[in-house]
Fold these 2 entries.
Entry 1:
Amino acid sequence: KLNAALGLESTFSATVDAIKTIVPADFISISLVEEDQHRLCYVQGDNAEILADQTFPTEQGLVGKVMKYRRTLPDNADYHGTSPVFSPAHLFADYRSLMIVPLMQDDGPVIGAMTVAAKQADMFTLTCREMLELVATQVVIKIQLANSHEQLNRMATIDPLTGIANRRAYQCGFEAMLDRAKRRPGSLYLILCDIDHFKRVNDRFGHPFGDLVLQQVAKLFARVVRSNDLAARTGGEEFAILLEDTDRDGAWKVAERLRELVSELKLQFGTTPVPVS
């Protein structure tokens, strides 16, 4: 399963399955380093909903020590509920067996940690530790591959200048959303818009400033669209918004709100104000 995993979520799921074949764990989490903190990217067990996606400083808790010293802790896998695992606010009072394994390969950087805990004492043997450390080295490879895979997917669907969906993603999204609209009640609305006189902006102030205008306008789309809508850059200065399950008045309000936000942009080239509409 771990070898077949492609994305991060499938890698995390396969990792948990592998751990459970080795040890009868009541709690499993996977943390990944993000600069000077680590994020709980996957949590299964008690308080999973509370802990999921939380971030903690890398110098805090036993997880921080594991990342710093590049070794599995605690040494004997015993736990008495007094040492902070993630932070002082997150003690594991009900657990008696604990093993935190660094995610790393040989001399490479520590990219995170696996935390495995059980409520019963003396659950994790030396053999368990060796097997979990072996799994951890494979997980590192899969996480790095998954990150590369997701980055390639993002590059294929995201416009690199503006950060919103590109023309390819728009075309695929349009086909899927139109197909859904045909199969169920409700309406699908399409808003097409472009920046007025954009060629004049490029000619007068240069293409780098024109890129800045595109970026500032694209940022406004996040303020008018919902999570299930699709905003895309379809051409040079051309944009599109697809709105699912929206009536005519709702679509008009989105378009008008976007128009107003663009007109309120305060852009300057040196001391020269540059109006945008």
Note: The radius of gyration is 25 Å.
Entry 2:
Amino acid sequence: ENFDVMDPSFWYVSSGWNNGAHQNCTWSKKLVRFDNGQLELGFRDGRAGDRNYSCGEIQTKGRYRYGTYEARIKAATGSGLNSAFFTYIGPVHKKPHDEIDMEILGKDMSQVQLNQYISAKGGNEKLADVAGDADKAFNDYAFIWEPKRLRYFVNGKMVHEVTDPAKIPQEPQKIFFSLWGTDTLKGWMGQFAYRGPTAMRVDRVAFTAPGDACQFPESIACQQN
């Protein structure tokens, strides 16, 4: 997906709610834009529902399982914000909570946090370096999900590998991009301080199933094949 045209049959835009008390913004379709070949997810002030800020999230309507997941992202600037690329399925879909995360936390733009949830059990956090800071330029984030192995990559380099079967999700999941903030999770995401509108940008995203041809020259799937 190169984000040239919004395809409502493929993408679902979150709007009109939030994910709980920890989130200080309400999802708004107004802050999801396809602009000049990029996805832009915004964060800005302005009362929305019972929150003081609005933010953007998009998710696939389809579900995916084993394969290579890749996105080229420029994170939003600001302590207390989370620029997230992840897969998720859960009770709202009448399935166990499984998740694979690559999250750039505004308190430290030099790192990306990696994590997995298996049947709602997390605690698998790892940090990987992002050279030059994640909000200064686009960087490539990827993971290869296999039945018995999960590998994470930043700019084409493997930064973490999981081989414990108990720590590898198995449920097919949706692909998400989201930008949100918090007033309460200070230890994790940093002290929130609003300094004006900001945005997370995504230049492309790709899912390559096992055995399929890679889709662009820089793809991790090209290297693996």
Note: The mean pLDDT is 96.
